[in-house]
TrEMBL record:
Key words of the record: DNA-binding, Transcription, Transcription regulation
Protein name per the record: Helix-turn-helix transcriptional regulator
Keyword Nucleotide-binding annotated: no
Taxon lineage: Bacteria, Bacillati, Actinomycetota, Actinomycetes, Glycomycetales
Domain of life: Bacteria
HTH hxlR-type domain boundaries: 14-112
UniProt-recorded Gene Ontology molecular function terms: DNA binding
Pfam families referenced in this protein's UniProt entry, alphabetically: HxlR (PF01638)
PANTHER family: TRANSCRIPTIONAL REGULATOR, MARR FAMILY, TRANSCRIPTIONAL REGULATORY PROTEIN
Length: 122
């Protein structure tokens, strides 16, 4: 019988914190949302996620691949073609991150109003 530890993200030494840090990254969320639509080329990802640099996109994709959330497919063509897609594990992350993105869009007016009220009181 194998022992499964009780992971607790609130415990300082829990390795799940590294996953939470990766998931909470704004670029990760946006990349996962785009890849939720299907396999995507690097350049199309960069176009879809406005404001991300090529370097940050590359680093984030590598981190997601290392964590088993994204798979990378290289095609032996000239020029080389590289596509990315969510793994089965990555697809489990798509729904909650999409929901957070939808929440942000739905409530940004309220957030902006709250910020303005706060700033005026200071």
């Amino acid at each position: 019988m194998s022992y499964e530890p009780d992971w607790n993200v609130l415990t300082a030494t829990c390795p799940s914190r590294t996953s939470l840090t990766r998931i909470a990254n704004k670029w990760t969320a946006m990349i996962v949302i785009v890849l939720g639509k299907g396999r995507t080329r690097f350049r199309d990802l960069r176009t879809s996620v406005e404001g991300i640099s090529g370097k940050v996109l590359t680093e984030t994709l590598r981190d997601l691949e290392r964590d088993g959330l994204v798979s990378r497919h290289v095609f032996a063509e000239v020029p080389p073609r590289v596509e990315y897609e969510l793994t089965d594990l990555g697809r489990t992350l798509h729904t909650p991150l999409s929901a957070i993105g939808q929440w942000a869009e739905a409530h940004i007016a309220e957030v902006l109003e709250a910020r303005e009220r706060y700033d005026c009181q200071r």
